[in-house]
Amino acid sequence: MDSMNANGHDTSVVRMENIVKRFGTVTALDGVDFTVNPREVVALVGDNGAGKSTLIKILTGVYTPTGGQIYFEGRPVQIRSPREARALGIETVYQDLALVNLMSITRNFFLGRELVSKIGLIRWLRLREMHAQTQTSLRDIGIEVRSPAEKVEKLSGGERQSIAIGRALHFGAKLLILDEPTSALSVAETRKVLTYTLNAKERGLSVIFITHNIHHVFMVADRYTLIRHGKLVGNYAKGELTHDDIADLITGARAS
Amino acid sequence: MSTVAVWRKGARGLLAESTIAGPLATLIVVFILCWLFVPNFRSLRSISGIVSAATLTGTIAIGVTLLMISGEFDLSVGSLVAVGGYLYAFNTMDGGSPVVAVSLAILVPAALGALNGLILIWTRIPSFIVTLGTRSIYRGALWVLSTGALVETLEDLTIYDIFNGRLDVLSNLAEGANFRTSLLWLLGMVVIFQYVLTRTRYGNHVFAAGGNPAAAQAQGVNVKRLKVICFVISGALAGFTGILLFSQFKSVRVTTGAGIELSAIAAAVVGGALLSGGSGSIWGSLIGVLLISTLRTGVVLLDLPFIPADNFEAVVGVTIVGATILNSWVRRRS
Which residues span the domain enclosing A21? Predict the structure, then answer.
């Protein structure tokens, strides 16, 4: 996982160095390094409470790190809010808080980035255009919806995940973070979400896939980053480890 | 697909898309029943009475609905009606400036609304509790400042006619009909706020903040600021209701507007708003207000021995529960 090219130039999409996060006296992250390269699907693996979410929340601007440095596309950055993370091109799809169930697909798709026209003080949403863009954009990555005006509550868990992924792609994400995207899905729906993940990679995105279910991630991950008790266990390339190896490393049954 | 099937599919689609289909159907059924069976109901006089009685609660219900969609409650609006009423009364009477009167009667309740929102954000106490407190505090402060005096006037100012005078164009249609200009103000507000809610970015964020605050926040919506703005609007509309009220009755007392907040919440719920937030419409709440007003008039005119005219509250209670059951049934089916 060498992110330097021949000239010693940093080619990584994101590089987090020596990240420390303390909540009061509790140390959630203790000097973790984490790198994602272009067009790479990285599985961030660890047990519940290992520090996966904390690390990601630092990357998405929800938490401020106690120590360490983040580089985005080689430049040192400070990410102070989710809005700043999005401005950089970091899009996150959360497990259950991705969409507003009582709102339509279109209104969810454009939430916070609505298309608005105005004449003087009067402003209005360009709903028809937003419907059309939503439908086209979802179709492009292989998602068919009956109507973009349909409420999200009518959709299945997998459809909701795919719409959230489609939204991230539409708005030009460079780095897509999927937080436990498959943990509540059926086998068939999991397969679909994994397909969209690969589609995203083919379109040139990098993906961080957070999970504690290694079976799901085996299909798509190029590399695994394992963390345990707030510390980096190690980085492993695809094929380097078996299911059992990873399971042992997650639980600490075997030392790295 | 047969024509019938297409029609049924279309009808079901309409029910699914429109949150007001259920409430509207209920209003029409109740109105027809009253029309057929209630003596003296079939007159422009009683219909104008229903409409005029609905305008004040209707104006309050707009702000209350907006807040309920965003996931919050405002129980202090009844007190703010009295605050607005006093400020308007004191500043219009005895040659005061109408501009100053109207500005104060709207801006002071708006500021008190902002205070509701800020307390909510600073303390994270549920707005139901915050406004249950400020509801008494605002009315208590009013009691102190006004020394509890009833304020009334016999003056006949143009400004009173503008805000809530007789609407002669409609009222002259029939003997005893009493349509008032507050109806036009209400309709204007309903159109504006329904537009804001369904056709602007702000409205989109109101639904999102109530439906799933974490998702809204994650998409960059400033949920806290949005809620404070909703409270400001609710306060301003309460002050405006005070203006309409004093313009019509030419009197205001410390207890004015007491209980109107509960009627407004009831109307919003009857009109399809969810107590948990994320759903509702201004049209729906207007229908809710009209439904309650129609039932009130119907019950009073029926003059039933076991439901005296001043016990219509019981009937209103039955409607609220009934309408809510019907709404959730429609919601599940669609």
Answer: 14-251
